[in-house]
Amino acid sequence: QVQLVESGGGLVQAGGSLRVSCAASGRTFSNYAMGWFRQAPGKEREFVAGISRQGLTTYSATAYSDAVKGRFTISRDNAKNTVYLQMNSLKPEDTAVYYCAAVFRLVPLSTSWWNSRQKEIDYWGQGTQVTVSS
């Protein structure tokens, strides 16, 4: 069992920055690929960013949705069992509840996989609200 707890959400003006965090506890964090999804009111939950498990090298493959590419950065700190989402140049359309997700996969995951395989996610966090004002 893996427990995921998000934090760092809040209210920010358009053009501003915010970093949300997801602390994991339970099974070996480094074996899990981690992702961020978001859900705006009246919309389906969508993929935002993902980072694969850290293998024998220091490199962890990342993936981003087109909506956030170039503005958001996902990273992980396996020593702290934490994954981060740094959000820059925020827009009002980024307003949503942001969810952390964990999936046990040993291979790098593509944007296509994250976009289409939500049902294969093993664990979800409870979500943190991000509101961007215009």
Task: Please outline the helices and strands.
Layout: E1 2-7, E2 10-13, E3 18-26, E4 32-39, E5 46-51, E6 62-64, E7 72-77, E8 82-87, E9 96-104, H1 111-116, E10 123-124, E11 128-133
Parallel strand pairs: 2-11
Antiparallel strand pairs: 1-3, 3-8, 4-5, 4-9, 5-6, 7-8, 9-10, 9-11
The number of helices is 1
Largest sheet: 7 strands, mixed
The topology string of helices and strands comes to: EEEEEEEEEHEE
- Structural class, from helix and strand content? mainly beta
Number of strands: 11
Shape: globular
Distance between the termini: 40 Å
Instruction: Report low-confidence residues grouped into runs of 5 or more.
Output: none
Helical content band? under 10%
Radius of gyration: 14 Å
Strand content: over 45%
Mean pLDDT: 92
